[in-house]
Write a structure and sequence with these properties.
about 240 residues, mainly alpha, 10 helices, Divalent cation transporter, membrane, transmembrane helix, transmembrane
Length: about 240
């Protein structure tokens, strides 16, 4: 099978968990519109834990390995700064899409890395695609609950999630065709994204995942990080 087809297939399957997670959130809202706060907080915390593992285990170490140390630090800081500005604009317009932004910041560079990896290690690329799928599922669930206000049809948001998932195959092809040998460029994208994710985690996601009535959400964060750790250990 051609690597280009592999790239489209794997990134597409990995990205479909975003609208799938959103669909599950919509179904849960219909069945139980007053879902316990602890459960929602735990799901958000799980997604935050998975994103933290992506920053700590994949994006920073893999990206920084291909860059001079000073440049890596500057790009990481720039990522945080840029998404501080983006978050500020969202807040001024009444938006609340921090988890969605963080999910995309995780998904896009990982899809590029997935495509680049197909050149050297196709077997590990399949495993990476599975881990991206598993990470995106709870993140898509929590992001849908965050973005959908109920004022517009849910399918509008779900259709937007499908469109976002379609970015994956495009990014994977870019990684396969242009970035497989351009390690510094891919590394710069990964480190920049890591800075943005870390900002969004501490500014928006972690505070919203906290519950005064229960410590269960904190365990959700541990479980999310454990998922990322398992995937990392299986791919090294």
């Amino acid at each position: 099978m051609q690597p280009h087809f592999y790239a489209i297939l794997l990134a597409g399957l990995a990205g479909l968990s975003m609208p799938l997670g959103g669909f599950l959130a919509w179904c849960e809202h219909i069945r139980n519109p007053v879902l316990r706060d602890e459960v929602l907080h735990a799901i958000a915390a799980f997604g935050g834990g998975a994103l933290t593992s992506a920053v700590a285990l994949v994006l920073v170490p893999e990206g920084a390995q291909a860059l001079p140390a000073v440049l890596a630090v500057l790009l990481f800081a720039a990522g945080g700064g840029v998404f501080y500005l983006a978050d500020t604009v969202l807040q001024k317009h009444g938006g609340s899409g921090a988890l969605l932004l963080a999910m995309l910041l995780d998904y896009v560079p990982e899809a590029m890395a997935l495509g680049a990896m197909l050149v050297a290690d196709a077997a590990t690329a399949w495993l990476l695609a599975l881990m991206i799928f598993l990470q995106n599922l709870p993140e898509g669930f929590a992001a849908f609950r965050e973005v959908w206000s109920g004022d517009s049809p849910a399918w509008h948001v779900l259709l937007a999630f499908v469109g976002l998932a379609a970015l994956g195959p495009v990014c994977a092809l870019a990684g396969l065709v242009w970035l497989a040998e351009a390690h510094a460029v891919l590394g710069a994208i990964m480190v920049f994204a890591a800075g943005g994710i870390l900002y969004l985690l501490f500014q928006d996601i972690a505070p919203k995942a906290h519950s005064n009535r229960s410590s269960v959400p904190a365990l959700g964060a541990v479980a999310g990080f454990a998922l990322g750790l398992a995937g990392h250990l299986l791919t090294v």
